[in-house]
Specification:
The complex is a heterodimer of chains A (about 325) and B (about 300). Helix content of chain A is about 75%, strand content about 0%. With about 325 residues, chain A is mostly helical. The chains are: A mainly alpha (about 325), B mainly alpha (about 300).
């Protein structure tokens, strides 16, 4: 077990390094000069040289990368000249809002998907299963923004129940004081995750149903309710570990698309803005952050799975 | 894991006693029958055929001008000479749906086949040779999966003029990773089978084992993966177009139509939003239906755990 965890840790470090190297090189291969962007077209060559020297931009790329990595290990994600603030401070104010959006919708989607998936497996090929499968299929086949647009059409435009825009506040507290504006973004993200989760839950519950211990539990006369609770649900819950691991980057940074549709002021929207304004520093910082959390999410899920499931031994 | 497939279990229970003996025929015929028995799969095939006809044959029967904007007829309600209305540049929406379908389907098919083929070779090589090579090749896949898809498209949008072939290349670049992982996993078990080992003992070259014994045995996974990849590519294309990192407006796709229509949602121009949305959903659902049925027919498990 310890060997497995150490091995997985080494893999995670290698993958993280790979992600930083690739994103760093790609962004530095882009045409354009940061000095010109910041100082303007009429900047003198001296001023540009001074700027480049001050920011180590004249050094070879491996030296720049080394600098970047050094800062990264000290928790410094870079500095946005366009916004005149550090990426850290930018994310410091945006990430808590994403945590609310992503965290609430993750919990909601699990709360819906687990019972629905188990119910579908128990009532396999009956109307309830078909209805739930159909719904998740439809949601699954829509581009994520389409779910958001449909919600806006019905709940914001046709019937003015909820506003179509997320609350525009720079703090979590400010957003929470306008909860009605959070309903549609959270609902959209919940539906997006639900579509994926319920498919996983259904197939995992179907697997569990076919196990020998299920037959044993029934054969020894255990009431059906207890069979479902004690044996089916508990064993199918292992899948949830994988689902949560998969969702960690989503919880941290939200989804670009949902945030873009609702103009939700989070890290995803910052990423989009950075892409449209060529703010490479922010792009690099957030891409690396998403990469690291993806690796971390998978790592945690694998380790948790190995600990929770005694059948898995490495 | 137990070997009892609930489907088989039901089949044995439901089998009539003393019924007629049905010849199972060749494996391919058996597959075909399982597939056809799945009504959703048949529906999926019918839908795909209809969409392809609509997009590729439609423009031959229904002529519209999709090249010069008609600013006198913008945002017209469906009816009259515009059966599905017109958009904000005065283009006929029905005609534009056909054109948009063409590019969406071309991209979907190209990406589905290219990415699966590459992932297949990559995964088979990685899984067959194992050891250090496998570790290196799989870390590359991990790195690819950890970089957000949007990032690559943002990068490319800065450097190159977007074109259909570049977009297909990029989508394939982000899509081959999952098939590679699936095929690698399958290869790990296939290479220890007797027939694969026997060939190696007899001095068969690795390439021969991979091409003649490993790859043909992954056919189920491959066929299923291709259909899901096509659906995914169409979906990702629609999302990229919406974000503005895809094709230029001169190549209409369903995603572009949807993105420009959404800005008029508040004005009530629903006909600029829903036709394109419905086309995307129908196409993706259709390919997913086919994929699901093939998955049942081949009895493949795509989940990794």
């Amino acid at each position: 077990m310890t060997r497995f965890i150490i091995g997985r840790l080494i893999q995670a470090v290698i993958v993280t390094l790979g992600v930083t190297i690739i994103t760093f090189i790609l962004l530095h291969a882009l045409p354009g000069s940061l000095a010109r962007d910041i100082l303007g077209n009429r900047a003198t060559p001296q001023a540009i040289k001074q700027f480049n020297d001050a920011n180590d931009l004249e050094k070879p790329i491996y030296a720049q990368y080394w600098n970047f990595l050094d800062k990264l290990l000290h928790g410094n994600l870079g500095y946005s000249f366009k916004l005149d603030r550090t990426t850290d401070s930018l994310l410091g104010s945006e990430l808590p809002k994403d945590l609310v959006l992503g965290g609430v919708s993750l919990i909601l989607s699990l709360l819906i998907a687990i019972p629905v998936g188990v119910l579908q497996a128990v009532r396999r090929n009956r109307p309830a299963d078909y209805a739930a499968t159909g719904a998740s299929f439809l949601l699954y086949s829509m581009p994520q923004y389409a779910i958001a647009i449909l919600l806006i059409q019905f709940l914001a435009i046709s019937f003015h129940v909820f506003p179509a825009e997320a609350p525009q506040s720079s703090t979590v507290g400010g957003m929470l004081s306008h909860p009605s504006g959070l309903v549609l973004p959270i609902a959209s993200l919940t539906l997006v995750s639900f579509a994926q989760f319920s498919r996983y839950m259904r197939s995992s519950a179907l697997d569990t149903l076919a196990q020998d211990y299920m037959r044993t539990a029934r054969a020894k006369g255990l009431p059906e309710r207890l069979v479902l609770w004690r044996h089916l649900l508990r064993n199918s819950l292992l899948t949830v570990v994988t689902l949560v691991g998969m969702s960690i980057p989503l919880v941290l940074t939200g989804t670009l698309i949902i945030e873009q549709v609702f103009n939700f002021p989070g890290a995803g929207l910052e990423y989009y803005t950075a892409a449209t304004t060529n703010d490479y520093e922010v792009l690099l910082g957030i891409t690396v952050l998403v990469g690291v959390t993806t690796v971390l999410g998978n790592l945690l899920a694998d380790i948790a799975y190995a600990i929770l499931d005694p059948r898995i031994r490495y | 894991m137990s070997a009892v497939n609930p489907q088989e279990l039901e089949a044995t229970v439901a089998a009539p006693s003393g019924g007629e003996v049905v010849s199972t025929g060749s494996p391919w015929r058996l597959l075909g029958r399982t597939f056809v028995q799945n009504r959703l799969a048949v529906l999926g095939v019918v839908l795909v055929v209809l969409i392809v006809l609509f997009s590729f044959i439609g423009p031959l029967l229904y002529h519209t001008d999709q090249y010069s904007p008609n600013l006198l007829d913008t945002n017209l309600h469906p009816g009259g000479s515009y059966p599905l209305g017109s958009d904000n540049s005065g283009y006929d929406i029905l005609g534009r749906l056909m054109l948009g379908g063409r590019s969406s389907i071309e991209v979907g098919l190209a990406v589905g086949f290219i990415s699966t083929l590459f992932g297949l070779l990559y995964g088979a090589i990685s899984g067959f040779f194992g050891k250090a090579l496998d570790s290196i090749m799989m870390r590359v896949v991990d790195i690819g999966l950890a970089i957000p898809v949007v990032f690559l498209f943002i990068f490319m949008a800065q450097v190159y003029k977007p074109s259909l072939s570049l977009l297909i290349f990029l989508l394939a670049l982000v899509s081959w990773l999952v098939p590679a992982r699936l095929v690698r996993g399958e290869t790990l078990t296939l290479r220890t089978r007797e027939y694969a080992e026997a060939l190696q003992v007899m001095g068969g070259r690795p390439w021969r084992v991979i091409l003649r014994h490993i790859i043909p045995n992954t056919i189920g996974t491959i066929v299923v993966t291709v259909t899901f990849q096509i659906a995914n590519a169409i979906l990702i294309l629609a999302i990229l177009q919406y974000l503005g990192f895809g094709l230029p407006p001169s190549i209409p796709t369903w995603g572009t139509m949807l993105a420009s229509g959404v800005t008029y949602l508040q004005d009530g121009y629903w006909w600029e939003v829903y036709p394109a949305l419905i086309m995307i959903v129908i196409t993706v659902v259709a390919f997913n239906f086919i994929g699901d049925a093939l998955q049942d027919a081949f009895d493949v498990r795509l989940q990794e755990k």
